[in-house]
Every structure is written in structure tokens, then in C-alpha cells.
């Protein structure tokens, strides 16, 4: 399911952004006709100057010990899923960590019972 891939990717990024010890909060709630997902971590955060590029394919901050870059498809895949679900994503810059706020029309993620 695309929604699971989206949440898994953002949560995995949060885990990787935390060195030693930290916290990750995931909050899900309805806001008008939207389902809102908020993923907040206490990791190293995202510099504001990269806000416009982190969702582009190929952008990465992850490198192996040998200096080989990761694929850089994680957040671009997240953005594609959100776009396919007719939603939107917003990156917020708290004092510490990062906050991703996602709004998706509830009708686009609710299972239909027939």
C-alpha cells in the first residue's frame, strides 16, 4: 500500500537523522475533509536552504563509509505518493529536528466497503 511506503520512508529517515538517542512522534488525525499525518523527530533536522530540493530525485545526505551516495529516491517517492493521493506535504523547521506535515483527502485513502 502506498500510504505504508510513505510512512515507512519518513519514519526510516527520522531514525537515521537521530544520533545516539532521540524521539519520533507520529500523529494522525482528521482535519476537515483531510487526514493529517505529522511525523516529528528530534534528529539533526533539515537546513532551510535545502527545503526546495529535498524532494527532488537524487538528493541525498546519506553516504557509505566509502563515500558512495545513497540513491536519493526516498523523499521523491514520498512526494509522488502524496501527489497521486491528491495531497500535500509541508516541511517545518522546529528548533531541533524536523516536522513533516502531510494532508491527504480522506476520501482518497479510506477503504470502500461494498
Describe this structure in words.
The chain is an alpha+beta fold. It has helices spanning 2-17, 74-84, and strands at 24-31, 34-41, 88-92, 98-105. The protein has a four-stranded antiparallel beta sheet with strand order 1-2-4-3, with helices on one face. The chain starts with a helix and ends in a 9-residue tail after the last strand.
Radius of gyration, whole Å: 15 Å
Please report the distance between the alpha carbons of the first and last residues. 19 Å
Q: Please state the structural category.
A: alpha+beta
Order of strands across the main sheet: 1-2-4-3
Shape call: globular
Approximately how much helix is present in the residues? 10-25%
Number of strands: 4
Largest sheet report: 4 strands, antiparallel
Low-confidence stretches: none
The DSSP helix count reads: 2
Mean pLDDT value: 83
Beta fraction: 25-35%
- Topology pattern, helix = H, strand = E: HEEHEE
Please render the helix and strand layout as text.
Blueprint: H1 2-17, E1 24-31, E2 34-41, H2 74-84, E3 88-92, E4 98-105
Antiparallel strand pairs: 1-2, 2-4, 3-4
Would you kindly provide a brief summary of this structure?
The protein is globular. Helices cover 24% and strands 25% of the residues.
Which terms would index this structure?
4-stranded antiparallel sheet; single chain; 114 residues; 2 helices; alpha+beta; 24% helix
